[in-house]
UniProtKB/TrEMBL annotation:
SUPFAM superfamilies: lambda repressor-like DNA-binding domains. This is HigA family addiction module antidote protein. One of its GO terms (molecular function) is DNA binding. The keyword DNA-binding applies. It comes from the Bacteria. InterPro entries: Cro/C1-type_HTH (IPR001387), Lambda_DNA-bd_dom_sf (IPR010982), Toxin_antidote_HigA (IPR013430). Residues 15-67 form the HTH cro/C1-type domain. NCBIfam families: antidote_HigA. It comes from Desulfovibrio porci. The lineage of its organism: Bacteria, Pseudomonadati, Thermodesulfobacteriota, Desulfovibrionia, Desulfovibrionales. Pfam families: HTH_3.
């Protein structure tokens, strides 16, 4: 993926808050979280957590997976484009472990 995925906070701000004319304070109250918590998400300084995904899904009649998948895509793209040395990791040849066995470890 070449284009950076949209942070879920931008979606909250642009597609929900602006459309529904909600302030950070009013939405935070509806979600049962602090204004600061919501503000850091909509200003793209914090991630949507599983708890927040549940709250957003309930408030906006969406699925929690929608919010978590957006966050995952954003986080993974960001990590792939940061020079943290992850590309220097030498692959380990794993031949005797099936995917099913690996999942149960």
């Amino acid at each position: 993926m070449t284009r950076k995925p949209t942070h879920p906070g931008e979606i909250i701000k642009e597609e929900y808050m602006k459309t529904l004319r909600l302030t950070v304070t009013s939405l935070a109250d509806r979600l049962g979280v602090s204004r600061k918590t919501l503000s850091t998400i909509v200003n793209e300084r914090a991630a949507v957590t599983p708890d927040m995904a549940l709250r957003l899904s309930r408030a906006f009649s969406t699925s929690p997976e929608l919010w978590l998948n957006m966050q995952k895509s954003y986080d993974l793209w960001t990590a792939e484009h940061e020079d943290t040395g992850w590309t220097d990791v030498v692959p380990i040849q794993v031949t005797n472990v099936s995917a099913e066995e690996h999942a149960h470890r």
